[in-house]
Amino acid sequence: MKMILPIKILLFIILAYFVYSFAIYNQVMHTEVARKSISPLAVKGKDVFQKFNCISCHQIYGLGGYIGPDLTNTISEKGEAYAEAFLRNGSLRMPNFNLNDTQVEALIEMLKAVDSSGSFPAKDFDVSWYGTIQKKEKE
Amino acid sequence: MRKSIGLSFVYLALVSLLAALFFGCIGAFQYIMPELLRDSFPFYKIRPLHVSLIVAWIFLASVGGIYHALPRILQKPLYSNKLAIWHYWIFLITGVVIIISYLFGYFGGREYWAFSPILAIPIIISWFFLIINFFTTIKGYRIELCEDKNGTSKLVWPVYIWMWATGIIFFFLTFIEAYLWLIPYFRENIIGELTVQWKAYGSLVGSWNMLVYGLAIYVMEKTSDTRISSMPLTYSLFFLGFINLLLGWSHHIYIIPAAKWIRLLGYAISMTELIVLAKIIWDWKGILKQGKKHIHSIPYRFLLSSDFWIITNLIVAIIISIPAINIYTHGTHITVAHAMGSTIGINTMILLASIFYMVSENRKEDYSETELKLIYRGFWLTNISLAIFWTTLIASGVVKSYYTLEDMPFQQIMNSLHSYFIVFAISGMSLLIGIVMIVIPLLSKLSANQLAENEQ
């Protein structure tokens, strides 16, 4: 059967989407920060993070829930011990998940990996006349 | 006639909507009263219940609308009613399993799809049934393009068929794409994974919007006897919108240190929405004038209010897509306002219009005096509550952004936002009441309707 025009257009759009997606993946997976892949323990930490749905309250790079603080730079700003205290005990607003030692260790490792990947909220940036932003070069 | 499978979808959709808003209210009150149901229904269970049920509402209502509309548009039955029934039951059972899994604390822990990845499999399968059903049903269907300048008429799909076709296909693709994180190659790369995730999510939301907007145009045409769905300009706007929905996702991740061209491309594409905005505002007066003629139609009223919300939300969306502004609004409740405004103000209003049209077309007479009063008051209560809700979220976002710049500690920021969260929770509650007032007459009509069709 002959394909009608709309179907051809649709197939073309799908193909274009695949090409575009691969270009994106190829690019983001090979930038300098991204290439530092994380340790197996940190990957495990990400699994724990998902298992307890931490993202429902917390953000990473400003993405996630809003009841708790953004965790992108918790480690460098407040330290490991501080983060660990929350993980072990919870607080008034944060539940205590009764995490075991391995889980806590993995979570800390993951938070460290996130921390070293960049910073949020962005500080020290230049704004171009057309509204884009660029991190200030460090001298 | 057989019992319409579309109506069964829609019934389930309305129940999901009520449940979603109910959990949303609990979540909102947990903001101001952290002890509320802290042990039995903690926030990390409430939030996914709320989000998943709202997503279920949007999908069930739009898919139900499509199953219902197709036979009427094409004047022939669906290719397979059985496949549609399978689709319904797989959706329903998976949904119930997802809810139970949340209650027991089993999570996949991702934004939007907080359930275990295994449960995505039945959803993908049931969606595949929809693809087969949809495309086989519309096979060979075309209509004449109206107002062709050269005097020749071309055979095309009406624009809503285009929207549904692209929405159905791209939901399938992007939903699968959203699970790329399961592959270690992506999982072991924080920036890469976040980028891929939000790329998929952006287009995924775009594709469900296509399903909803398609219904809007379909119902608009049916309530106001115009032929917008086959005018050349509508096609241009559709393609522009479509490209935006697919490629305009990068404002979610300006903040992530990914490649610069990705940000630039996303920014440039987001700005083309200005054209869509200008066009809508341009048409607004005409719509209002027409509105006087059609205001007796309940679906028309709901469409009119969705138009209002499209304008307000598009303005905010365009503003927060400018990177230099996004850097301040990102991670604040302005993003939440954007999400709530579009899911409630735009999607829910359109879907309610569509359901009213499915249940009683433009016949106001189908409702008793009391029911009409309830619907109209509910309509106003919902819209006014949403306006308060939305404004409070924007305001609290601005305040949070300001204090964050001032380096105020998180807990102090939250404390200073307390009064905003109170208004937010209370207006959320009245929004729920408004929706209940609208939905109750619909549910009772739907039960009666389904019974009647069963008997025949």
Record the SSE blueprint:
The complex is a heterodimer of chains A (139) and B (456).
Chain A: H1 5-28, H2 32-35, H3 40-51, E1 59-60, E2 63-64, H4 74-78, H5 80-89, H6 101-117, E3 125-127, E4 133-135
Helix pairs in contact in A: 3-6
Chain B: H1 5-32, H2 43-74, H3 81-103, H4 120-137, E1 143-144, E2 155-156, H5 159-177, H6 184-187, H7 190-224, H8 232-247, H9 260-271, H10 273-294, H11 298-320, H12 323-329, H13 333-360, H14 369-405, H15 410-416, H16 418-455
Antiparallel strand pairs in B: 1-2
Helix pairs in contact in B: 1-2, 1-3, 1-16, 2-3, 2-7, 2-13, 3-4, 4-5, 5-7, 7-8, 7-13, 10-11, 11-13, 13-14, 14-16
Low-confidence parts of chain A lasting 5 or more residues at pLDDT below 50?
none
- Strand tally of chain A is 4
Mean pLDDT of chain A: 85
N- to C-terminal distance of chain B: 7 Å
Shape of chain A: extended
Percentage of helical residues of chain A? 40-55%
- List the helices and strands of chain A in order: HHHEEHHHEE
The rough form of chain B would be described as globular
Q: What kind of sheet is the major sheet of chain A?
A: 2 strands, antiparallel
What quaternary form is this? Answer: heterodimer
Q: What is the alpha-carbon Rg of chain B in Å? A: 22 Å
With strands numbered from the N-terminus, the spatial order across the biggest sheet of chain A is 1-2
Summarize the entry for a quick read.
The complex is a heterodimer of chains A (139) and B (456). Chain A is 52% helix and 7% strand.
Tell me what you see in this structure.
The complex is a heterodimer of chains A (about 140) and B (about 450). Helix content of chain A is about 50%, strand content about 5%. With about 140 residues, chain A is mostly helical. Chain A has a domain at about 35-120: Cytochrome Bc1 Complex, Chain D, domain 2. In chain A, the strands form 2 sheets. In chain A, strands 1-2 form a two-stranded antiparallel ribbon. In chain A, strands 3-4 form a two-stranded antiparallel sheet. In chain A, α3 (about 40-50) crosses α6. The longest helix of chain A is centred in the first third of the chain and has 24 residues, at about 5-30. The radius of gyration of chain A is 21 Å and the shape is extended. The N and C termini of chain A lie far apart (about 65 Å). Chain B is an all-alpha fold and about 450 residues long. Chain B has 3 domains: about 1-140; about 155-295; about 310-450, no CATH class. In chain B, strands 1-2 form a two-stranded antiparallel sheet. In chain B, α14 runs antiparallel to α16. Chain B is globular and about 60 Å long. The chains are: A mainly alpha (about 140), B mainly alpha (about 450). Chains A and B meet through α1, α2, α3, β1 and β2 of A and α2, α5, α6, α7 and α9 of B.
